[in-house]
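Why should sequence recovery work at all? Because a backbone constrains its sequence more than one might expect. Tight turns favour small or flexible residues, buried strands favour hydrophobic ones, and helices have their own preferences. The token representation captures these environments compactly. In the example below, the structure is given first.
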């Protein structure tokens, strides 16, 4: 039995005047169990003080990499259709509508051009929040156009992978993007322009089997899962235990598949350093060729 009973209601606050915390505002760091506000996370590019990397949106990467966060969006008029009229538990066309409403994106990748460290740059960034970042005909087209802009406008190119693989609802249409994007990268290489592949968590399936592993320089975020099939599938197939940290970015760097593992807050400065180095060498080579040509004419 209570010792006392309130006879009148206490101070009441109207619902409109309450400062309620928005749903999802707090995130728990998996390393320390510390609660961190979404505002604080965004200020540090979705990385906790202990170093855990939460997923970041494709547009978030664009804002982080481009000079002053300024860039020109491209390909936001592309929309996937449902050529196979695919239905599982839900019609594919309904999944597309739901993903567009939830994310505000047309599909699982965004593209942009601008400058990074004053270097002309063309970028495509995948977004896991849109149907698991799966690669379909639209994503393949966005990546291909991103590479083609690099070719046409003499820009370095980077694709940021964040994907569960090819989108099964488009079947062969999705798988065709592996060859399509790889062909465009061959043309970029013929032009002598660098391609940076940034692999984030996760980078798997057909994305890993195509452009994600075709970079001139492979960069990965710490702790990212990178591979074709997942560890569970491999373990069940070969019926053997896998090495510790198998398919993490650190494991792949140790075995030569990844060149650099870089925490997200340091990615932009690392990329600028690489661009400065590559384009300085490129300028020196052009100067040497010009001198050789002049000497040949003089001779």
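From this structural description, the recovered sequence reads:
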């Amino acid at each position: 039995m209570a010792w006392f009973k309130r006879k009148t209601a206490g101070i009441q606050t109207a619902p409109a005047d309450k400062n309620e915390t928005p749903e999802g505002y707090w995130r728990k760091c998996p390393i320390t169990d510390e609660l961190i506000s979404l505002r604080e996370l965004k200020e540090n590019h979705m990385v906790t003080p202990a170093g855990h990397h939460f997923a970041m949106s494709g547009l978030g990467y664009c804002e982080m990499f481009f000079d002053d966060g300024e860039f020109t969006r491209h390909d936001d008029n592309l929309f996937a259709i449902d050529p196979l009229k695919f239905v599982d538990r839900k019609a594919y066309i309904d999944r597309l509508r739901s993903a567009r409403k939830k994310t505000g994106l047309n599909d699982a990748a965004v593209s942009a051009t601008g400058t990074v460290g004053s270097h002309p740059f063309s970028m495509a960034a995948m977004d896991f929040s849109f149907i698991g970042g799966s690669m379909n005909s639209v994503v393949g087209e966005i990546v291909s156009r991103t590479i083609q802009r690099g070719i046409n406008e003499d820009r370095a190119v980077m694709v940021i992978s964040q994907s569960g693989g090819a989108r099964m609802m488009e079947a062969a249409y999705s798988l065709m993007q592996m060859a399509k994007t790889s062909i465009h990268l061959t043309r970029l290489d013929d032009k002598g322009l660098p391609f940076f592949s940034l692999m984030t968590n996760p980078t798997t399936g057909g994305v890993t089997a195509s452009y994600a592993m075709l970079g001139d320089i492979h960069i990965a975020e710490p702790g990212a899962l990178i591979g074709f099939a997942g560890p569970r599938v491999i373990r069940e197939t070969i019926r053997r235990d896998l090495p510790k940290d198998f398919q993490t970015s650190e494991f792949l760097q140790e075995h030569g598949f990844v060149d650099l593992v870089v925490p997200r807050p340091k990615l932009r400065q690392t990329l600028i350093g690489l661009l400065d180095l590559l384009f300085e060498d490129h300028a020196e080579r052009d100067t040497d060729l010009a001198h050789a040509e002049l000497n040949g004419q003089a001779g």
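A few observations help interpret the result. The first strand starts at residue 26 and ends at 28.
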